[in-house]
Amino acid sequence: MAPCVNFVTGNANKLREVKAILEPAIEVRSNPLDLDEVQGSIEEVTQSKCRRAADLVNGPVLVEDTSLCFNALSGLPGPYIKWFSSEIGHQGLNNLLAAYTDKSAEAVCTFGYSAGPGHEPILFQGRCSGKIVPPRGPSRFGWDPIFEYEGQTYAEMDGAQKNSISHRARALKKLQEWFRDHAEGSVTAPQ
């Protein structure tokens, strides 16, 4: 029987990508709880969300936090990309780098897994280096149209291509390896 986790997200695009990458090896059940996000480092934000989710679900949970780090801005907007993006959009994110020649950026995805309340979160992080460009491709998912990796924005890639190279895919590969090595048969089904 495959291990099963509650993926705590209200983002249908994230859920679709996570299910496409993990299943059927790890069953992913959606739980769209709205979790408060603390201010802090990428890791602190994910750990806090994971602890809160485990308490609320009272079982095994998986949470995710995505960051977009502009090298010219010493890593900002980082874990606050969701808020930056919703306020200033793709053009505003490009404008943040207008005064800099360095348009390089790093997409960072951090998953937190907890077996349940009282269990310390285990973090799995994936990183993908690229650069910030004017929007190209469909605007279906967050900042995908402005993050370019090897000549294509995430938005210009089909799902399978993105899911093979993205920051999220790299983090989930680490999670899959951990489950394969440590959690086989020891993960209880969510309530």
From TrEMBL:
<feature type="binding site">
    <location>
        <position position="49"/>
    </location>
    <ligand>
        <name>ITP</name>
    </ligand>
</feature>
<feature type="binding site">
    <location>
        <begin position="65"/>
        <end position="66"/>
    </location>
    <ligand>
        <name>ITP</name>
    </ligand>
</feature>
<dbReference type="InterPro" id="IPR027502">
    <property type="entry name" value="ITPase"/>
</dbReference>
<feature type="binding site">
    <location>
        <position position="162"/>
    </location>
    <ligand>
        <name>ITP</name>
    </ligand>
</feature>
<dbReference type="InterPro" id="IPR002637">
    <property type="entry name" value="RdgB/HAM1"/>
</dbReference>
<keyword id="KW-0547">Nucleotide-binding</keyword>
<dbReference type="GO" id="GO:0005737">
    <property type="term" value="C:cytoplasm"/>
</dbReference>
<feature type="binding site">
    <location>
        <position position="37"/>
    </location>
    <ligand>
        <name>Mg(2+)</name>
    </ligand>
</feature>
<dbReference type="GO" id="GO:0035870">
    <property type="term" value="F:dITP diphosphatase activity"/>
</dbReference>
<keyword id="KW-0539">Nucleus</keyword>
<feature type="binding site">
    <location>
        <begin position="9"/>
        <end position="14"/>
    </location>
    <ligand>
        <name>ITP</name>
    </ligand>
</feature>
<dbReference type="GO" id="GO:0000166">
    <property type="term" value="F:nucleotide binding"/>
</dbReference>
<comment type="subunit">
    <text>Homodimer.</text>
</comment>
<keyword id="KW-0460">Magnesium</keyword>
<keyword id="KW-0464">Manganese</keyword>
<dbReference type="InterPro" id="IPR029001">
    <property type="entry name" value="ITPase-like_fam"/>
</dbReference>
<dbReference type="GO" id="GO:0009204">
    <property type="term" value="P:deoxyribonucleoside triphosphate catabolic process"/>
</dbReference>
<feature type="binding site">
    <location>
        <begin position="167"/>
        <end position="168"/>
    </location>
    <ligand>
        <name>ITP</name>
    </ligand>
</feature>
<protein>
    <recommendedName>
        <fullName>Inosine triphosphate pyrophosphatase</fullName>
        <ecNumber>3.6.1.66</ecNumber>
    </recommendedName>
</protein>
<comment type="similarity">
    <text>Belongs to the HAM1 NTPase family.</text>
</comment>
<dbReference type="GO" id="GO:0036220">
    <property type="term" value="F:ITP diphosphatase activity"/>
</dbReference>
<keyword id="KW-0479">Metal-binding</keyword>
<feature type="binding site">
    <location>
        <begin position="141"/>
        <end position="144"/>
    </location>
    <ligand>
        <name>ITP</name>
    </ligand>
</feature>
<comment type="function">
    <text>Pyrophosphatase that hydrolyzes non-canonical purine nucleotides such as inosine triphosphate (ITP), deoxyinosine triphosphate (dITP) or xanthosine 5'-triphosphate (XTP) to their respective monophosphate derivatives. The enzyme does not distinguish between the deoxy- and ribose forms. Probably excludes non-canonical purines from RNA and DNA precursor pools, thus preventing their incorporation into RNA and DNA and avoiding chromosomal lesions.</text>
</comment>
<dbReference type="GO" id="GO:0036222">
    <property type="term" value="F:XTP diphosphatase activity"/>
</dbReference>
<dbReference type="GO" id="GO:0005634">
    <property type="term" value="C:nucleus"/>
</dbReference>
<dbReference type="Pfam" id="PF01725">
    <property type="entry name" value="Ham1p_like"/>
</dbReference>
<keyword id="KW-0546">Nucleotide metabolism</keyword>
<dbReference type="GO" id="GO:0046872">
    <property type="term" value="F:metal ion binding"/>
</dbReference>
<dbReference type="GO" id="GO:0009117">
    <property type="term" value="P:nucleotide metabolic process"/>
</dbReference>
<comment type="function">
    <text>Pyrophosphatase that hydrolyzes the non-canonical purine nucleotides inosine triphosphate (ITP), deoxyinosine triphosphate (dITP) as well as 2'-deoxy-N-6-hydroxylaminopurine triphosphate (dHAPTP) and xanthosine 5'-triphosphate (XTP) to their respective monophosphate derivatives. The enzyme does not distinguish between the deoxy- and ribose forms. Probably excludes non-canonical purines from RNA and DNA precursor pools, thus preventing their incorporation into RNA and DNA and avoiding chromosomal lesions.</text>
</comment>
<feature type="binding site">
    <location>
        <position position="65"/>
    </location>
    <ligand>
        <name>Mg(2+)</name>
    </ligand>
</feature>
<keyword id="KW-0378">Hydrolase</keyword>
<keyword id="KW-0963">Cytoplasm</keyword>
